[in-house]
Amino acid sequence: MTTTTSARRALVVGTGLIGGSLGRALRARGWHVTGHDAEPTSARRALELGALDAVGPGVDAELAFVATPAGHAAAVARRLLEDPTRPPELVVTDVSGVKAPVVGAVAHPRFVGGHPMAGSEQSGIEGADPELFVGATWVLTPTADTDPAAYATVAGVVASLGADVAALSPEDHDRLVAVVSHVPHLVAATLMNAAADGARADGALLRLAAGGFRDMTRVAAGQPDIWGDICAENAQAIVAGLDRLLADLAELRAKVAGADRAGLLELLRRASAARRALPAGATRPDRLAELRVPVPDRQGVLAEFTSLARDLDINIYDLTIAHSAEGPRGVLTLLVGEDHADRLRTAIEDRGHPCTVTTLT
Amino acid sequence: MTTTTSARRALVVGTGLIGGSLGRALRARGWHVTGHDAEPTSARRALELGALDAVGPGVDAELAFVATPAGHAAAVARRLLEDPTRPPELVVTDVSGVKAPVVGAVAHPRFVGGHPMAGSEQSGIEGADPELFVGATWVLTPTADTDPAAYATVAGVVASLGADVAALSPEDHDRLVAVVSHVPHLVAATLMNAAADGARADGALLRLAAGGFRDMTRVAAGQPDIWGDICAENAQAIVAGLDRLLADLAELRAKVAGADRAGLLELLRRASAARRALPAGATRPDRLAELRVPVPDRQGVLAEFTSLARDLDINIYDLTIAHSAEGPRGVLTLLVGEDHADRLRTAIEDRGHPCTVTTLT
């Protein structure tokens, strides 16, 4: 517990896999980290493992990460933001896997919803890894009410942990993770259960489970307990994803039963090409361009630009705001694919903001 | 091409990923390997890469591996077995992923159907790997007509490449691989296509594809072209597997839509426990027992014991036959889980064969 008084101070509420990894990652970058957990033995273990500097309420923290089970995140975040003993500039973020319900329930300018797209089959503090977020996409979900300074704080810290920040609306986040995470996870569990049932009838079955089956079911080994909240909070998008999958699989079944070799081949070729095109790290175009826009430093400015990009179907790969020392103005920087830069600049200028584009090579 | 005349001689027909890996693995163990391919440039490349000693028909081979596309395997195997210029003791095996159609079409005592449960997203000779089969389960599918000596040859060679031999009937193999390989592969392709479609509408989608999604769709990157044959030849089992999956997913959808948190948790906990119990290598019980049975060395003897074990729901982890020098008798050795050894011995003795059991520790 040797820390200088000048260290930035963070609070981590919930010291499981993500909270513990956050603690270790922040401490490795010079932060002083206080934490607590509903399960006091977990917090003590986090302290022992070097994920925390201290166990306690961390009232002097400038930034709080809420890494509790998702069902508690909104209440914990609100309590922190309404606590009169804490600094009035306290910024709070969370890590829960469904964003719209949490962001809607907290509804505070200094709350920035977040979701690090990193995890492992590990769970609990024992699996905590300071490098867990390196190269991972970390979604932040600013809204029209988000304070740009609070967003900039969270985005900067998250990026300093090695994550690749993506700004999305809470609703877009929830719809997209249903497709790439929630539905696949539920399918993995379903395939695993079918195989386990089959193995009870036929002991040889699991001997035939080669690498492909192991890969496909790996996520099913993860913490089951978080999925009650996820399925409850993202039910609509998950049901839509399952309906799409049921329709696709029924079509596939018809192709197999009908010996539609050409149709099957087309389906599998398309999937093979798409999977091979899936890049190893976070997905970015090869060439990026940076747009710089002087903007008034006020609430709503972030959401104005994220929703503009969204309407144009343009991905924002990074978004930062630098505050001017001379008054309530700042400079917004948007990182987009080079192909889309001119289209976005035109739209921004049409809204009365000057905008410069630099291609990054 | 420096080989001694005493080297055992193998033929590999089809020099893709599996054929090329076989050539390299066999050569590493002292075999002389001749090979050819419908695509002559592939065979020449196999020679260049050291997967073959020679390109040609390999008429002096004692053992032939048919590693062509599955649709050609039966015809190639029959042609080899009926070729009067080849040794009358030639043993032929194949590597195709669906066994009953091939085994039924060849229907020859010196043909032993095989399926190495190893592969990779790689395809073609460039991905050939002499260690591909180490630790992999390699299913062999003897029938009532299989010559025990032919089976012993194939099982011995396959085991020498590092594979773990499993004896199953062709029909059981096909039913089980539908559950652990074919249906999961088709599901991976379906999930990948849904995500790719989603990404066209929403470029941010694939940025959210974290490790779990990558794991689940990895197999979809594999060679699409082999799946036309697999889906055609194993259509019945695949359709049954898809029907089971459709029913399971419809039930899951009802749980999500109905906010059945307890039901979802039960499903996910069961899957998590089953996945964690899935061992890293081939699945064997901790304690094995060896049964030794003196048997007449005649056709049908292998199938008699494999079907007896199957009727008793007992897994055979290894099966070898040693021939007596004194006449047409041999000793059959069966490796089973210790828990089942006494039950199997009783059944064998009931059929008039003496049987001894040794527990392996």
Brief write-up:
The structure is a homodimer of 361-residue chains. With 361 residues, chain A is of the alpha/beta class. Chain A has twelve helices and twelve strands.
Question: Your description of this structure?
Answer:
Two copies of one chain form a homodimer. By secondary structure, chain A is an alpha/beta fold. The first copy, chain A, has three domains: 9-168, Rossmann fold, CATH 3.40.50; 173-257, 6-phosphogluconate dehydrogenase C-terminal fold, CATH 1.10.3660; 288-360, ACT domain (Alpha-Beta Plaits), CATH 3.30.70.260. Chain A is 45% helix and 18% strand. Chain A has an eight-stranded mixed beta sheet with strand order 3-2-1-4-5-6-7-8, sandwiched between helices. In chain A, strands 10-11-9-12 form a four-stranded antiparallel beta sheet. In chain A, helix 4 links the parallel strand 5 and strand 6 (111-116). In chain A, helix 3 runs parallel beside helix 4 (100-106). The two termini of chain A are 43 Å apart. The mean pLDDT of chain A is 88.
Tag the structure with descriptive keywords.
eight-stranded mixed β-sheet, 12 helices, globular, 3 domains, Rossmann fold, Alpha-Beta Plaits, 361 residues
